[in-house]
Amino acid sequence: MINNYSLYYSYQTIGDVLIISISDGDIANIEKRNNVELCYNQDNYLLKIRIYGISKIMKIHSNGLIPLPMNQFIDVINSLLVKENVDKLAYKHNSDFIIGEVCKEGVKS
Question: Do the beta carbons of residue 64 and residue 40 sit within 8 Å?
Fold first, then answer.
């Protein structure tokens, strides 16, 4: 199960490709499985998954980062990943964005 990831879709910028970003790093190896592309670093760690032609499967009304996708959206993506023998994505229950942090100064313990 892939727990930490972000989704990006922008038809106008990159075309009909859904990008699942798992980790940052330099891509050293790309494995293509039908319309799914797996991008690995030199240590064979999965960095990104690209799904081409996603609009043939579902409509995505987004332009950029998809911070909190619906469970049904993840279910469709997971059905594609399972067909290609790739780990499923976990459901997201929060966007992982931190707006601010409360700090107390001068408190001694």
Answer: no
Q: Radius of gyration of the chain from Cα atoms?
A: 17
SS3 of residue 30 by DSSP:
strand
Query: CA 66, CA 68: separation in Å to the nearest integer?
Result: 6
Give pLDDT, residue 61: 87
Q: What is the DSSP letter of 78?
A: H
- Residue showing tokens 């059905």: 79
Exposure string over 78-103, b if 16+ CB within 10 A, otherwise e: bebbeebebeebeebeeeeeeeeeee
Q: Which two tokens stand for residue 94?
A: 């929060």
Whole-number pLDDT of residue 66: 92
